[in-house]
Amino acid sequence: MVKAEEEPQSWLDLLQPKWKGKIISGYTGTWFGWNCLLQLTLKTKNGKTYGPYGSMAHATSQMPFSYTAPQGQALLAFYGKTVNVPLADGSRTDIIASLGGRFT
Predict the structure, then answer these.
(1) Model confidence over 40-78: pLDDT tens digits?
(2) Which of helix, strand or coil describes residue 45?
(3) What pLDDT score does 11 carry?
(4) What fold does the segment set 4-103 form as a domain?
């Protein structure tokens, strides 16, 4: 288990070498009409699990996904796209519209 003060504070924090792993899994779905990444879990080559990060709250659809690193490789980096979307209260938030992983 990760101590609260050591948890990633943003999706970019997951690029740090200490999060290098073997499996990326989670859920994509629809959140207030937007298709996005809802939840992400990482599993290291040593079997430690980090996450889930994100929330399934208010999701009207959920589709599980899982990517496993090829034999002898590990997750090196993430790539994807964020979109800034409006909220009902007039404010805005960023969602992850797409996410992929590079293995090495």
Answers:
(1) 998 887 788 999 999 999 999 999 998 888 888 888 888
(2) coil
(3) 58
(4) Vitelline Membrane Outer Layer Protein I, subunit A (2.100.10)
Amino acid letter, residue 88? A
Distance, in Å, from the CA atom of 104 to the CA atom of 92, rounded to the nearest integer, reads: 36
Q: Which amino acid is at 31?
A: W
Instruction: Answer for the pair 67, 96: CB distance below 8 angstroms, yes or no.
Output: no
Are residues 62 and 56 in contact, defined by beta-carbon separation less than 8 angstroms?
A: yes
Q: Coil, strand or helix: which one is 11?
A: helix
Give domain limits for the chain: 4-103
Please give the model's pTM, rounded to 2 decimal places: 0.74
List all residues 6 or more positions away from 98 whose beta carbon is below 8 Å from its beta carbon: 37, 80, 81
Burial of 45 per CB tally in 10 Å (0-12, 13-18, 19+): middle
